[in-house]
Structure of Adenosylmethionine-8-amino-7-oxononanoate aminotransferase:
Amino acid sequence: MAVFARAPGLPRVAWARGVEVVDTDGRRYLDASGGAVVVGVGHGVEEVVEAAAAQARRVAYVHGTAFGSDVLEEYAAELAPLLPLDDPAVYPVSGGSEAVETALKMARAYHLARGEDRWVVVGREHSYHGNSRGALDVSGRAALRAPYLPWLGPAVHTSTPQEYRCGFDTHPHGCGLRHAERLEQTIADAGPERVAAFVAEPVAGAGLAACVPPEDYWPAVVEVCRRHGVLVVADEVMTGFGRTGRWFASEHFGMRPDLLTAGKGAASGYWPLGLAVASGEVHETIGDGGLVHGFTYSHHAVGAATGLAVLRRLRDHGLVGAAEERGAQLAGLLRERLGDHPWVGDVRGAGLLVGVELVEDRGSRTPFPRSRRVTEQLLAAAKELGLLLYPAAGCADGSRGDAVLLGPPLVISAAE
Ligand code: PLP
């Protein structure tokens, strides 16, 4: 039977160690994107493999409504103090999209439990929160939504800070406040009593190539949400688990969300793990068993064992601090070596989540026409040279813009 491949003519992967991937023809690649910004602890870490295998040997699978597990309790206990939520409760799933779906349902369940019929979710333009229908509905990336528009429904989208092409640079207090005002208007238009949640990435990932919002943005946005009883959902699927030089990117802004989603770095690619996390207040309001929801593979013991081993590796090897240090080095080098290149418009990011925006004209910041397929060409050329990058979208001014993301394993050395 054919494999419905995600792209034509792919090389076949043979093995990987550290930051290196090797294909079956013996070609070596530097994994500068950790796959889809997934691999934090590096490839081929024996103790993570062993933790997953040991759990699978004990018991690989029971249904999450029939049994809890010690390993999941242990994982939750070690994860809790690292999360930017008060008294958090975790709902483990199989990936980022499932985590977002779960968080959306938690938001709805929270309001229903309080006797409020809220269902509208506010997302942001240019954002990406997953490809399942609920997560795609919240996502703002037009190209991904386009084929499925008839299926997409009640989510509405507000503006997002994008410093490189900010339309608000005349505001006396910085553009973050303008975006918070926009959010408040979006909530007002939707009917504040109907709005359940606001979903956003603390630092934008693929949708805007590692755009960091101005400092005044998150405090103002959280204040607007709290005033209208709207839950704040921090989507940390890409930014979580040390990627930006903090355990979670919310920390950069002193933000305490009501709900948080994670995935990717949580199990570093060794297991398909996603997490939806609720604050103590949201959890207690819904109550254990109060969420009409569930997946066959949620609360998986092998996922918990893998996540625990990854967490310990990140913590015991100081990889979160390493991400901050190596990230500053990487962004510095990119600016130094490529900063004058006529096609490099911007180098930005936080920690080891670094975006490079490509433009046809630096002075006017004019993007390349889409027909040039610049991102695709750059990715292919880099791969030819043995360098793996991840595609992203540039800051938008009506067109999508070209950009690439660098997000190597956090174990990358200064020399690498
Ligand atoms: N949320 C964010 C911010 C993401 O970057 C992604 C994936 O890129 C997702 C959600 C969806 O995660 P997954 O692909 O694991 O379903």
The mean pLDDT is 95. The radius of gyration is 21 Å.
